Amino acid sequence: MMNKLAQRFSFRPSPRLIFCLPIFISLNYGVLAGEPIGRALKHYAQSKQWSDSTGKFKLEGSLKYADTKEVHITRSDGKLIKIELEKLSDFDQTFVTMFLKIESAMNSDNPFVPVESGSIPDVPSKAEGPKKLDMALGNQPWKPTSSSPSAKRVYEQQKFVTNILVHYRDFFRVSDSKAGGYAIGTTRGGSDSGSQMAFIHPHGFMPIVRSKERWKLLAVSPDGSRVAASLESASGRSQIGVFQVTQDAIELETQFPTKSPVTYLGFSTRDRLVSIEHSRTISVWNLEDLQSPKVELEGSSFASQSAALSPDGRLLAVTTGFGHIVLDLVQNTKIGELGRGNQILEGRLQFSPDGQMLAAWQPMQVFIYSLTSGKEIARVPVTESYMSSTFGWLCDHLIVGQTLYDYRRSIPLWSFKTDSAISVESDGERLIYSYGDQLLNLSVISVPYKDIEKQSTGLTAEKVYAIRPGDTVSVDYFLDTATQEDKDKVRQVIEQKVNSLGWKLAAKSSNKIVIRLKEGEPAKAEYSQRASIGGLSRMFNQQGPMDLVNYKPWDHQISISVGGKKVFEAAHTVTAPSSLPSRPSESTQSAMDRFCKPTASYFGELPICNSLAWPQYQGGVGKSVINANGELAP
Q1: Span 562-607, pLDDT tens digits
Q2: Cα(174)–Cα(444) distance, rounded to whole angstroms?
Q3: Which residues, in sequence order, are bridge partners of residue 366?
Q4: Pairing state of beta strands 58-67 and 70-75?
Q5: Distance (Å, whole) CA 415 – CA 605
Q6: Are residues 85 and 142 in the same domain?
Q7: Domain-located, residue 521
Q8: β-pairing, 511-519 with 472-478?
Q9: How many secondary structure helices (H) and strands (E) does the chain include?
Q10: Could you list the residue range(s) of the whole structural domain that residue 584 is in?
């Protein structure tokens, strides 16, 4: 079977990979054929896993040549495989198609390759079409652009707003205004669907504006005079709304359609609004004529939807599949690339308050880039892997999740705990903490920087971290009564995990990983024989005849110790689920036997930081609690 895509290929399913580069494309190409040669296309020549259209056959290999009909793949053993493009999976067809379009654009005499006409939003416009930039990753010099610091806040009090009556059943976010104040937006679902907005000043807040439509607040203008929101209707139509903030009200100034749901909004300079859609269309809107907003600059980023604007609104940073593109929205030019060559599947971006650095958060680490040189200046290991957690700058430090980091020393400084948070944001100088039960409360919390700096004097990464990339580790396995197949899978996953963390496997080391798979005591569970729609699952405690099934839970444990002192541990138990997925014509007992068994992938997917701190430094040298009243306590 191994020669019809090798032959037609066979290999393990792999995690989702994004092979995407940003470029503005057109339907009018020259000959779409070629080899991935040169710096701008080298990523397409890297080895990857390929799949056929059925998903049954897979292959490890690198792209050698492609045209619109046929793809040549060099297998890992050096043999050349040829396959028709249409027989590849949709993902791989997209990968090849993007390569062909970029390869064609690189060979074109035209320095500007326009976007597809179908990607331009259908909005009124009295001017010519938007300018389109060539954003293909290429060998372009870095052109530094200065960015002015953000304005200082005008308030000093810690808790300045309390008891705002806001239905935050689906609380969305608090957005900061550099002028001193915050816009707060909520959305609600169900029969009581709609949205609410309020603009909060240091000494009070606007009357709350309610709408039957589910507007999602996404941005506040630097001067606090406008807020921007997105709206997705039940019919799937999407809108952008721009609201004006006055002393008496928040009023809708204009709204206009987009092709797909909006994932990012940000105010740039000179009455410009930046939007990124789910389709990865990037648009810069001119709002000078609110009766006819028009797109001034537009293109597509075939990768992540992560983006950030500099404090002065001049620079836009956008994450791509292999780095970050920085655009100057005043000159409408690309000024450079950051982190080029790093594969980025997900992440978030934030400019520093002075606009001189860009922080790029990827799972378990943050990269810091200089906007003067375009080079990486620091890499900070972080323990937070949940990408929707708090992320931003606090003065000259980074806040990731509930921990503050010193990016220069790459160490944790301070952390806080709370049980009452609805949302925690950063305004660049303080934490904006929202909490409450029936009523929404808002506090501005100042971090005890002086105490933290004093406690952390003399600390270095070498002192804080017990294990770092390049260190050796040994692994002890206690796999109980698992089958030999499951044991082999666990060992393979652990070896891959160690390599991905940058650690080195050794037969003996003071850095020890202990892996345990332990089978629990026999137990029984009952499930209804009645299947859900399509026979996809049998629901627990449904009415009707019940099946009594036997099972044994499996406990998965991992611990990491250095010199006998534990620095990391995690556990996961696979036991009887409340609802049991089953296949057509599958008995309940067979479904349970298939479900309740060792899961090797747990160890591979478990988020582990590649630099593990000693216990006394985990969370930083300073630790605080934010109590139920929104106040900071030691």
Answers
A1: 999 999 999 999 999 988 877 888 888 999 999 999 999 999 999 9
A2: 12
A3: 361, 380
A4: antiparallel
A5: 25
A6: no
A7: yes
A8: parallel
A9: 6, 47
A10: 469-610
- One domain, residues 193 and 245: yes
Phi, psi at residue 626, to the nearest 5°? Answer: -100, 115
Greater confidence (68 vs 192) lies with 68
Q: Which two tokens mark 166?
A: 């806001």
Identify whether residues 482 and 586 lie together within a single domain: yes
- CATH for 255: 2.130.10.10
Specify the number of domains making up the chain. Answer: 3
From residue 140, how far is each of 104, 105, 301, 316, 343 by CA, in Å? 18, 15, 18, 17, 19
pLDDT digits (tens, 9 = 90+) for 313-326: 889 998 877 788 88
Task: Check whether residue 163 and residue 311 sit in a common domain.
Answer: yes
pLDDT tens column, 133-179? 444 433 344 454 444 333 333 333 344 444 455 554 555 556 666 66
pLDDT number for residue 485:
94
C-alpha–C-alpha distance, residues 128 and 118, integer Å:
16
Beta strands in 140-249 (DSSP E): 161-164, 170-177, 181-188, 194-201, 204-205, 209-211, 215-220, 226-232, 238-245
CB count within 10 Å of CB 449 equals 16
| pTM higher than 0.85 | no
Establish whether the linkage from the previous residue to 529 is cis, with ω within 30° of 0: no
541/527 Cα distance (integer angstroms):
6
| One-character DSSP codes across 275-338 | EEETT-EEEEEE-SSTTS-EEEEEEE-SS---EEE-TTS-EEEEEETTEEEEEETTTTEEEEEE
Q: What percent of the chain has pLDDT over 70?
A: 74
Amino acid in the structure at residue 122: D
Question: Are the beta carbons of 308 and 317 closer than 8 angstroms?
Answer: yes
- Residue in this structure with the two tokens 């747990």, named with its chain if needed: 602
pLDDT > 50? residue 217: yes
Sequence-separated (6 or more) residues with CB below 8 Å from residue 388: none
Angular region, 470: left φ>0, alpha ψ -120 to 50, beta rest:
left
Residue 269 has pLDDT above 80, yes or no: yes
**HSE (CB half, 13 Å, CA atoms) of 490?**
24
pLDDT for res 51: 84
Q: Which residues contact 578 (CB under 8 A, 6 or more apart)?
A: 540
Q: Clarify whether residues 89 and 210 are in a common domain.
A: no
For a pLDDT cut of 90, what percent of the chain falls above it?
33
Indicate the residue type of 477: Y
At 419 the pLDDT is: 84
Q: Are 425 and 176 in contact (CB under 8 A)?
A: yes
